[in-house]
Amino acid sequence: MNKRNWKRLLHGIAGVMVAAGVTYACKGFLDTPTQGTLDEQTLATKAGVEGTLIAAYRSLDCSSSSAGSWGCAASNWVWGSVTSDDSYKGSNLGDQQPVNDIETYYWSVGTADDYLNQKWSQVYDGVARSNATLRLLEKVRAATPGEIDDAAAARIRGEALFLRAHYHFEAYRMWGNIPYYRETDTDFRKSNVGVNATAEILTDLDEAITLLPATQADKGRATSWAATAYKGRVQIYAGDYAGALTTLRAVQTSGVYALETSFDHVWTGFLNFRNGPETILAFQASVGDGEPSGWNSNWGERLNFPHSGSHFGCCGFHQPSFNLVNFFQVDAAGLPLALAGPAWNTPVPDSNFAAGVVRPIDPRLDWTVGRDNVPYKDWGLHNRSWIRDASYSGPYSTKKNVQEQGANAEDNVGWQTTQTNDVPIHIFRYADMLLLLAEAEVEVGSITNALAIVNSIRARAGQVAQGCGHGDAGAPATDSILKATYPACATDERMSVPLTQAGSVYSLTEPWAVYRIGLYPSFPDQAYARTAVRYERRLELAMEGQRFFDLRRWGAADTTIVNYVASEKARIPYLTSAAPFTTRYALYPIPSLQIELSKVGATDMLQQNPGW
């Protein structure tokens, strides 16, 4: 058995996959043999309750039982990146038209509606599985009091409540006006009118905090500190900055979480960095667990790899935008060039910010984006043949979700075997939480605290930059093109190369880039601090599915998207057809099928969002 799935959450849809009826598991945390369909009597045991709980975790990403395509990805790349200024749909004109409709703000057309329904199905499938765990727990405790002791029951209930809160939060970020389902509900045709979703979510999280242990033996399970951090996240979205300040400061001072020592350790397939100190909630993808199609690996991401010409072979979706790449430019002090004005949004539209463009850049760019003639982790040089149609969606490839060659992280099953991997998909990580805390500090006027947080994240970003490749894995360099292009790579095979610190500036010059990042000397006022924190969120969390949700909650989506489309359509011609971004885009439209299914007689219990 491949040990990559040892003692980790979600290996093989673990324990009991109620909806699918068939499970795969591995020795260790999910020490359960392959099973067929299980009846309710079989589930009414401690093992059945635990398996049902694991099935609730499984809904964090696309699964065969809950959705049919890519709108359900744990990373929210369709909903949080493609609709923002971070990325394009990618690929070519004909593939996955629904994502093109979503990107160009035609959210009410039939194909986009199908993707919206996938997302709705995924999150409410997760809610249903969480509630099934709670009901089964109570049933087993009532029928066989000694089967599950009080401590185990508290932990199981706490995890299920945490997951229920998360799935409802995902729905809230998408649609705002949502129904809230508890384990006691029997009629699922509930209204979404007048529901205070954030209050309901916080109620579940508060109970989860009291029930969950501070640590768990099995990595990936929710803890009381994860629930506390998540509570602060919800408070930020609810606009309760004072409450979030108290909550998130408690997490920060606890020392339970910490930033990874370097940025390349955050998104990686290397096992020694898996579930490190920065992980709060991640989809724990699994490979080599006996599942024959790759469903337990990162299914929701499998389109998002370089196309043919690369090792991965397909499919070129979720391509970084020119706008995003340009945003990583820095000034002489290593601070974002965007602070000085619109000059950051260059080079000119027909240019390619490839290797050899000597403008200094934040080193996080080349851990986030694949650029021509720049090493791509340890896979050799990224080049134009890796792009499916650069004339359609630009020359760049996504990078964070991609496994390293030396990590042995591929599943090697399914229709494109090189795309399925077990790189954990961060749904909520500590740097994200710290930047939410920094935001709260700014809004209450504690800009010195915000400065310290931002600088800690920038200092971490200044530790290493992309090197030639291979050295971290201990494997020999085999890319002759890389060595011929950059002779120094014949002897320096490191994938991660340290920057040099001089005062408050970290820097490194490689043949393909000038890397530079500096610390802020001060935040002179609240407005400057607010801008700096928001810029840092974009740089740190780029391509992680957060950007569009940030823009909306800041009230900045309309202006930002209008300006983005106005400049970017000269680079990406199909954006000239984008619908005008108006106030109705404050929320996604509720899927038409769900409104139809909510009918009680002739009355729609679900009411459509304004403007749709």
Describe the structure.
With 612 residues, this protein is mainly α. It has a domain at 322-392 and 445-545. Helices cover 36% and strands 8% of the residues. The protein has helices at residues 40-43, 46-58, 77-81, 97-103, 110-143, 150-175, 197-211, 224-237, 241-254, 322-327, 365-368, 390-393, 430-443, 447-461, 480-485, 526-541, 547-554, 557-568, 592-597, and strands at residues 87-90, 279-283, 317-320, 369-370, 397-398, 425-429, 464-466, 496-498, 500-502, 505-510, 513-518, 599-600, 603-604. The strands form six sheets. The chain has a three-stranded antiparallel β-sheet, with helices on one face. A two-stranded antiparallel ribbon has the order 1-3. A hairpin with a 2-residue loop joins β12 (599-600) and β13 (603-604). α2 runs parallel beside α6 (150-175), α4 crosses α5 and α6 (150-175) runs antiparallel to α7. The radius of gyration is 23 Å and the shape is globular. The termini are far apart. Mean pLDDT is 90; it is low at 6-37 and 471-477.
Sheet with the most strands, sense and barrel status = 3 strands, antiparallel
The unreliable regions are 6-37, 471-477
Q: Beta-strand level of the residues, as a percent range?
A: 5-15%
Number of helices: 19
Overall structural class, as computed from helix and strand content, comes to mainly alpha
Shape assignment: globular
SS elements, strand count: 13
The helix fraction, in percent, is 25-40%
Distance from first to last alpha carbon: 50 Å
Give me the side-by-side strand order of the main sheet. Answer: 9-10-11
Task: Summarize model confidence as the mean pLDDT.
Answer: 90
Radius of gyration: 23 Å
